[in-house]
Amino acid sequence: MRISNLVEEIFAQAVALDQSGGLRNTIYAIDNEVFILNYDHTVLLRFRLRRTEGNFEHPISFKANDYDSNVFEEVDGKIVFHSEKGDYQRKKICGTTDLTPEEIKQLYHTYQEETDEKLSPIVISRDVLELLDSDLSHIEFSAEAGGNMKMIQRNIYSGGIIEIEKVNTGLIQEIIEEGFGPLAIKTDDFRALFTFQDALKFSFPSKDKEDFILIKGTDANKRDISGIIACCLYDEVIELKQARQEKPKRMRREI
Predict the structure, then answer these.
(1) Exposed, middle or buried: residue 175 (CB in 10 Å: 0-12, 13-18, 19+)?
(2) Which residues are CB-neighbours of 3 under 8 A, at least 6 positions away?
(3) Whole-Å CA distances, 108 to 118, 149, 205, 245
(4) pLDDT band at 90 (very low <50, low <70, confident <90, very high)
């Protein structure tokens, strides 16, 4: 099969993230949906294709780093990428993945059904990336009822803290009726999201339901993107939540 230029853009961006180490991932395509799942199962993104882009007649999956051409097929359980140069034809043959596209699609839609437990979305733009320290591994998100969303990065070695607060400006006011957090996601995961759109809507979980965050694109003229990010708990966050048992542990929830 040959994919459209727009689908090829999604694949190319996934490959670039994989090769840069920002979001090592696997690509799944089924019907009119393309999914990107990172290797440690903390980020699952979904792109819904337009009618003009057609559907995938057969489900397919491959590691992003194996992607080699916009012409490929599945043969005997292997992905075969085809390319040509002058009088020469090339085939790159790769294995498929442990999870199937059907399983990933079901997983994604299972999480999306739990949106009634999420707060109203908060729009976050890529402008905030310039204020973050990429050397610090995690970002904490929190908000008090009626207050503003805060993002905190902690240096566990020096004790230093970076605190960023989103302040309501302009005509549209984001009112946080119920507080949430503190909860955290990996800094690399957060930065990778803005590869696809400049601003995203984040729906944070209600208190005591801090399992995952939903995201959705804000620009209808660009890719139809949505996704799920698994929340993390690590040393300082566990102490703040007074959830320490015998001693703090580094924990990660997987999707």
Answers:
(1) exposed
(2) 11, 70
(3) 16, 26, 17, 32
(4) very high
Q: Are 24 and 38 in contact (CB under 8 A)?
A: yes
Instruction: Give the pTM.
Output: 0.81
Per the structure block, which two tokens stand in for 51? 């009618």
Closest by CA to 177, choosing from 206, 203, 146, is 146
Among the residues of the chain, which ranges form H helices? Answer: 5-20, 101-112, 187-193, 235-240
pLDDT single digits (tens) 198-255: 999 998 887 666 678 899 999 877 778 899 888 876 544 333 333 333 333 333 456 6
Distance CA 117, CA 123 (A): 18
Walk me through the domains of the chain, giving residue ranges and CATH numbers.
Answer: 5-112 (3.10.150), 115-252 (3.10.150.10)
Q: What is the pLDDT of residues 138-194, one digit of tens each?
A: 999 988 888 888 999 998 888 899 999 988 776 666 777 777 878 888 888 898 889
- Give the separation between CA 214 and CA 204, rounded to whole angstroms: 7
Q: Which residues does 113 contact at the CB level (< 8 Å), separation at least 6?
A: none
* 228, 108 contact by CB (below 8 A): yes
The answer to whether 198 and 128 have CB atoms below 8 angstroms apart is no
**Alpha-carbon torsion angle 54, 57, 61, 67, nearest 10:** -60
* Angstrom distance (rounded) from CA 219 to CA 214: 16
